[in-house]
């Protein structure tokens, strides 16, 4: 029961006790309202609650309870959203700073809002006007989705964010506060750019999507803001023609543009009552008008196959229809972007349903594409920050379309209609390409390891292996987590500070989780390809090499993770291949494997130490096989030897330490190896293999690679090294002469 005024001779003071605020700033005149006594507030609110219109379902009781709580506890934020209120009390708690009355049925706001309010949210109401007398310290005013046709010209000069989207504005006041940083005007009736917008500061952002600007107005605006001396705000817009929204066709009619009439009628008519079916119909109609659909028969065939699949998979269809909901709210390129998003939805569905269980190498490739798209989105966001006249959709698509071929983005559209207004230059694309490739080298393995579709597929492929690895990692995580947190806190000098411990703890946890998941993926890949190499069936070794070669073409960082040796005493795919080569008959696979390593090394996915360890033993007790020794021992007269020499020459030429490391490892005598043991200070017995090959097959290419890499000391008479070898290079005539000797 609310307190009431028990003195019948003392009337409620419901009128305004006010005095002109002499300290108000700018063009705003604010009436300073003298607060009421608590019992006066209670009585006023009780009367307001009693006077609620019948049948409206208003929850004024909840509103009164919340206002009382603010008054009694001095709570600063008043939330009255979603209470179906048709009006507010003329007096609100006097000390609130935030008022949220969104999602009601308000036609107006009180004329005397508390002067302490800095943030007002009145979205999704029925306002036709807003008070002239707004709080003098107001910073944010959100009026989205009302019925406003105009706003007053004396807004407080403290306001920083003004949201007027989805109203009926056809003009704006001549003056807007210089303090404005964000002005949302989407989906109004503006046909020209009001002069007051040009006077906003350069830091301001003005959002104009969905207004009926002519193409000429948009072009003139774009030309103006791109002038060198332009100092006004940044404009965000859409290239949409804003044509009148025609009712979408029945879904069965829309799909006839892609499928036969009989198929469309029989399969799609029953789906017209599904959620978002109308939105999907509108999307299909717009998709048929895009450049890709008009000019690319292969694209149309792809859409046809996709539609056929949607008929057969209700769950995928439901998710796809939901994506279509926002697909036609902007220009043609928004439709293209939605198509790309729908293909991502299909991918996730396929992974979760097990379609990719036997296609893990392909999934790695798809994952790399998803990673690249994420990086391009970041590049687009960075580019948007530099532009003054921006359609963000065009910027995003410009990067995807412009780098489609270079990054093998099969899900990206081939064409976009408004690419010329994106502001993205060839220089921007070149810079983004370099950045994406560098990030792919450094970050993609961890990204893949944490990508939900990959984790799902990994577990389905080998649940026992994954569970065992995770159990081991959990123990290690518990042992080292506290140590790493303490070390970082000590290094930063913030020991004992609670907030710092929380932040550092989260950082360390995320790092360790990423490290563990990456280690799990690497162990899975090594286990997979070691098993294939160790299989007695030759076709399994062939499968390992061809799979990794394919992965290296599209996701080289993952291929590098699979071939990179780990512990020197552990077998790896290359050492197991060496065992097979030593047994004979695997020279072509050795050639392909060495080519794979060379490619990864040249593109900097493997460093020189990793290449050396992948080919040569660390010590003579090394249990793993040496691919270099196996090739030299049994396949020297093959192309594998030529490629091996070329790779070792490249690595040896990088620095003297690498050359010495290679020579030392080549000199090792391994169990079962037929090399004659040489003293450590002697040249590698590799030269004997070269000499033997010289007698057997005149392997001039291998000799040239060895000589240019300076793997054979010039004192050896095999090559009769000339003076040019001192620098590690020979001119063409000298090389020819040397090879004749």
UniProtKB/TrEMBL annotation:
It catalyses: S-ubiquitinyl-[E2 ubiquitin-conjugating enzyme]-L-cysteine + [acceptor protein]-L-lysine = [E2 ubiquitin-conjugating enzyme]-L-cysteine + N(6)-ubiquitinyl-[acceptor protein]-L-lysine. Residues 1-32 are annotated as: Disordered. PROSITE patterns: NEL. One of its GO terms (biological process) is protein ubiquitination. GO terms for molecular function: ubiquitin protein ligase activity. InterPro entries: LRR-bact_E3_ubiq_ligases (IPR051071), LRR_dom_sf (IPR032675), LRR_E3_ligase_N (IPR032674), NEL_dom (IPR029487). SMART domains: LRR_BAC. It is found in: Host cytoplasm; Secreted. It is an enzyme of class 2 (transferase). Ubiquitinated in the presence of host E1 ubiquitin-activating enzyme, E2 ubiquitin-conjugating enzyme and ubiquitin. The active site is at residue 331. It comes from Serratia symbiotica. Residues 250-540 form the NEL domain. One of its GO terms (cellular component) is host cell cytoplasm. This is RING-type E3 ubiquitin transferase. Pfam families: LRR_TTSS, NEL. SUPFAM superfamilies: L domain-like. Belongs to the LRR-containing bacterial E3 ligase family. Keywords: Host cytoplasm, Leucine-rich repeat, Repeat, Secreted, Transferase, Ubl conjugation, Ubl conjugation pathway, Virulence.
């Amino acid at each position: 029961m609310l307190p009431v005024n028990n003195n019948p001779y003392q009337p409620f003071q419901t009128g305004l006790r006010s005095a002109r605020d002499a300290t108000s700033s700018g063009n705003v005149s604010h009436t300073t309202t003298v607060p009421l006594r608590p019992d006066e507030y209670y009585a006023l609110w009780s009367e307001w609650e009693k006077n609620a219109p019948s049948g409206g379902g208003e929850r004024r009781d909840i509103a009164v309870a919340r206002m009382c709580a603010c008054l009694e506890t001095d709570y600063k934020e008043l939330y009255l959203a979603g209470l179906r209120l048709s009006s507010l009390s003329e007096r609100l708690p006097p000390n609130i700073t935030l008022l949220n009355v969104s999602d009601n049925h308000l036609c107006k706001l009180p004329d005397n809002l508390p002067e302490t309010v800095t943030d007002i949210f009145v979205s999704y109401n029925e306002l036709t006007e807003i008070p002239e007398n707004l709080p003098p310290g107001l910073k944010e005013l959100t009026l989205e989705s009302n019925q406003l046709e105009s706003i007053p010209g004396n807004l407080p000069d403290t306001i920083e964010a003004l949201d007027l989207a989805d109203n009926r504005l056809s003009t704006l006041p001549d003056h807007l506060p210089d303090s404005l940083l964000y002005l949302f005007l989407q989906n109004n009736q503006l046909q020209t750019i009001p002069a007051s917008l040009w006077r906003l500061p350069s830091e301001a952002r003005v959002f104009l999507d969905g207004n009926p600007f002519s193409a000429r107005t948009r072009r003139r605006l774009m030309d103006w803001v791109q002038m060198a001396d332009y100092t006004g705000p940044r404009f965000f817009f859409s290239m949409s023609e804003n044509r009148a929204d025609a009712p979408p066709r029945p879904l069965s009619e829309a799909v006839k543009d892609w499928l036969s009439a009989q198929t469309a009628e029989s399969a799609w008519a029953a789906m017209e009552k599904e959620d978002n079916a109308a939105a999907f119909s509108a999307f299909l109609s717009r998709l048929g008008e895009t450049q890709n659909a008009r000019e690319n028969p292969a694209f149309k065939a792809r859409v046809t196959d996709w539609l056929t699949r949607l008929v057969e998979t209700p769950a995928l269809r439901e998710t796809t229809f939901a994506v279509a909901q926002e697909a036609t709210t902007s220009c043609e390129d928004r439709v293209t972007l939605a198509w790309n998003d729908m293909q991502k939805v299909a991918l996730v569905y396929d992974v979760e349903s097990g379609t990719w269980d036997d296609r893990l190498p392909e999934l790695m490739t798809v994952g790399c594409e998803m990673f690249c798209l994420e990086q391009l989105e970041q590049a687009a966001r960075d580019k948007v920050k530099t532009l003054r006249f921006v359609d963000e959709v065009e910027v995003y698509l410009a990067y995807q379309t412009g780098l489609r071929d270079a990054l093998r983005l099969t899900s990206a559209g081939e064409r976009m209609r408004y690419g010329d207004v994106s502001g993205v230059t060839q220089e921007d694309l070149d810079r983004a390409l370099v950045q994406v490739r560098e990030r792919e080298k450094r970050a993609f393995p961890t990204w893949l390891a944490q990508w939900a579709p990959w984790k799902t597929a990994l577990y389905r492929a080998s649940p026992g292996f994954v569970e065992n690895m995770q159990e081991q990692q959990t123990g290690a995580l518990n042992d080292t987590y506290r140590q790493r947190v303490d070390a970082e806190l000590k290094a930063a000098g913030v020991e004992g500070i609670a907030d710092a411990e929380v932040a550092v703890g989260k950082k360390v946890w995320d790092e360790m989780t990423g490290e563990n998941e990456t280690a799990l993926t690497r162990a899975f890949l090594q286990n997979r390809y070691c098993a294939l190499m160790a299989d007695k069936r030759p076709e399994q070794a062939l499968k390992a090499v061809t799979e990794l070669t394919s992965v290296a073409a599209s996701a080289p960082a993952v291929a590098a993770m699979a071939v990179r040796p780990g512990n020197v005493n552990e077998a790896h795919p290359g050492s197991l291949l060496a065992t097979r080569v030593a047994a004979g008959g695997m020279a072509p696979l050795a050639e392909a494997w060495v080519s794979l390593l060379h490619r990864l090394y040249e593109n900097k996915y493997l460093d020189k130490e990793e290449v050396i360890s992948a080919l040569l033993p660390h010590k003579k007790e090394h249990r793993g096989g040496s691919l270099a020794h196996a090739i030299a021992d049994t396949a020297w007269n093959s192309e594998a030897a030529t490629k091996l020499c070329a790779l070792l020459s490249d690595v040896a030429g990088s620095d003297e330490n690498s050359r010495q490391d290679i020579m030392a490892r080549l000199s090792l005598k391994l169990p079962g190896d037929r090399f004659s043991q040489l003293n450590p200070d002697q040249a590698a017995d590799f030269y004997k293999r070269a000499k033997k090959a010289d007698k057997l097959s005149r392997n001039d290419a291998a000799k040239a690679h060895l000589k240019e890499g300076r793997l054979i000391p010039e004192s050896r008479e095999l090559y009769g090294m000339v003076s040019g070898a001192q620098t590690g290079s020979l001119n063409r005539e000298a090389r020819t002469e040397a090879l004749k000797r």
